């Protein structure tokens, strides 16, 4: 699969918190760190997501904000 998004971060599913309609997916990135995504429960089922499964976190955005204290 090829995508136009430049930010394709490989990792594995660390945790799933599936609700009635949506699910929180915690991805442990191969380069270190974690990323959390909220997707539909149906998407979790369609992708066959489970803890330990290899995934890509794909980020496509027109803006990235940076903040400091």
UniProtKB/TrEMBL annotation:
<dbReference type="GO" id="GO:0015689">
    <property type="term" value="P:molybdate ion transport"/>
</dbReference>
<feature type="domain" description="Mop">
    <location>
        <begin position="2"/>
        <end position="68"/>
    </location>
</feature>
<dbReference type="InterPro" id="IPR004606">
    <property type="entry name" value="Mop_domain"/>
</dbReference>
<keyword id="KW-0500">Molybdenum</keyword>
<dbReference type="InterPro" id="IPR005116">
    <property type="entry name" value="Transp-assoc_OB_typ1"/>
</dbReference>
<protein>
    <submittedName>
        <fullName>TOBE domain-containing protein</fullName>
    </submittedName>
</protein>
<dbReference type="GO" id="GO:0005886">
    <property type="term" value="C:plasma membrane"/>
</dbReference>
<dbReference type="Pfam" id="PF03459">
    <property type="entry name" value="TOBE"/>
</dbReference>
<dbReference type="InterPro" id="IPR008995">
    <property type="entry name" value="Mo/tungstate-bd_C_term_dom"/>
</dbReference>
